[in-house]
Amino acid sequence: MAVLSLIQRLLGKKTDVKSASPIPAFFAHKAKQQGYTLSAGQTQAIAALARQTQQLLAGKPTRSLYLHGPVGRGKSWLLDGFFQALPIAEKQRVHFHAFFARLHRGMFQHREHDDALGVTLDELLAGCRVLCFDEFHVHDIGDAMLISRLFKTLFQRGMLVLVTSNYAPEGLLPNPLYHERFKPVIDLIAARMDVLEVSSPEDFRSLPQAHAEQRFSAGQYVWPGTVAQREALGLPATHCPAQTLKVGNRQWVCRSHQAPTIAFTFNDLCEQLTAVMDYLLLCQDFDHWIIDGLPPLAQCPIAVQQRFINLVDVLYDQDKRLTLIGQQPLAHALQGQAIDLARTASRLQQLQTVCPQQAPHPVS
């Protein structure tokens, strides 16, 4: 197999890849099965994953890996494949938002302890030898300080950490007011991790074969949300009366909630003080999310844009079905100033678009 042979050459001719690491053969088979042609960056990353797997299985020290690149270039695909193929049980695959929500909650519970972080990690990562950390980004100085402590602790524990990010390490926490304070973490990443760029001329999420892999891809973007469209799709009316819903210790407003479906307006979710932990709680009970009234994001405050970005991240990672309703083409609605909107746009491209006198088709 051509891909496998190339990875073997990158690993070195003396390495018996098939017997020592299942990673190259797994990805060669997965790419062929899904009709993907691996990019040079993906191939280099697979070879690095194979090297560290060999070290891990041989009981030798490993170097962690930091994969970065533009949205839709296969970083999460690599992480998920590595996690699936790695032949050990002591591993975890976590998402940035979900992990940090649990980390903050645990540290609050153990706040009286001298090492609240260590005790929380003992609970969250008990017995874990490999941590796959997807969609890593830093925009908040509070998270940045916690990340510094977290990474030092993970490396001290000898854990193999695989990180994917849209940002090269030096691009993390881009706010110039705080970036220098994060420099020690960037230096730590450079010292303890192999940093690899995963790039490609195309966004893999736009390919037809990507649409069959997630329930998220079965969702729809509906515009302009006419009465006829709503009736045909069985969607709530535009002016559904508000209903109350308890989320954690707070009362929320939604339009309807009958499992497995919950419906909100954009205002209900993003123009209120909602948070990632709230979305994660609701994901435990609801698989189909309807969000009505997506405005042009460029007209919204940055904080509102960021809540929408976080919400889409959670729904995508939790593989929830999303029906999003707006008044204009999606590409127009998603123009804004928030840094991570490119990732949101790439993910929402997987929805099927429904517009007047047109059958559903992938958003282009």
Automatic annotation (TrEMBL):
Membrane-crossing residue ranges in chain numbering: none
Keywords assigned by UniProt, alphabetized: ATP-binding, Cell cycle, Cell division, Nucleotide-binding
Biological process annotations from GO: cell division
Protein's UniProt keywords contain ATP-binding: yes
Keyword Cell cycle (UniProt): yes
CC per GO annotation: cell division site; cytoplasm
Gene Ontology molecular functions: ATP binding; ATP hydrolysis activity
InterPro entries associated with the record: ATPase_AFG1-like (IPR005654), P-loop_NTPase (IPR027417)
PANTHER family: AFG1-LIKE ATPASE, ATPASE N2B
NCBIfam families: ZapE
Name of the molecule in the record: AFG1-like ATPase
Organism annotation: Pseudomonas antarctica
